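Exercise 7.
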Amino acid sequence: MGTDATWLDFEKPIIELERRIQDLKDFGSEEQIEFSEEIRRLERRLARLKDEIYSGLSSWQKVQLARHPRRPYTMDYVEAICSDFVELHGDRGFADDKAVVGGPADIDGRPVMIIGQQKGRNTKENLYRNFGMPHPEGYRKALRLMQMAGKFNCPIVSFIDTPGAFPGVGAEERGQSEAIARNLREMASLPVPFVVAVIGEGGSGGALAMAVGDVILMMENSIYSVISPEGCAAILWSDRAKAPQAAEALRLTAKDLLELGVADELVPEPSGGAHRDAEQAAAALKEAIVRRLDELGQLPVGELLARRAAKYRSMGVFENGHGQS
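Solution. The predicted structure, written as tokens, is:
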């Protein structure tokens, strides 16, 4: 099951009980001793414990799950959902950003263009992937692939999982804000179906630069926010330790964003999160992606673009008690 360092604090009672059950099964098998009644008792206790913990997660605990080091990343979902994926590299201008992956693929006979942000599993991989934080050349690579998809009438599927765009001096010198702004403009007019799946963190403009789609899917324990809870806490209270308070105020969970109309569908995860059963999580996400691609594929281009424009223009619009916007 890995070291305790790869499990969150609120998960550890569950992990300890699961280990106890497995140890009892192993010992009983080796010594040919019957522990079935004790195992059933512990399994009932485990089910109650899971229900108690996971049914009452706070927004901050959802943030921790979205960042879980065992959580499936973009390439895990691509391998589980797609076939014939061919990764394409570079922005044809400066470099190949390893934090952004993409290329043509096939989902059950449907040709698609995949784009996504990719994190690493360990220190070496995270340095290689820049912790999933794209540079401007990453956004330009994504734009190149999206434009290619538009040229060949190929639907786009974008996997979002980033703390945000890389804030370094070099990225700013190479036009980070311009690259993000250009992507926002170009995505609005892409003449093909565009499905976005927030699978972990959706961090600010760094996420939005690859997420102006027709449908926004959010995995149950993913988050999407204009700023990280730590950054928000540092600005509002000059204290990053107040991140749990900021997470509640930001309304960044999938459930919150579905209620606010930012997300279009919440994709259920296995009990305890996608990292507890990556195969089941991928199956649920694939079903949602395929269903949405089929729905969008029925729309004429003019209607597709009109709906996309109306979707984003309506965000942030609320009515007061007198029916006025």
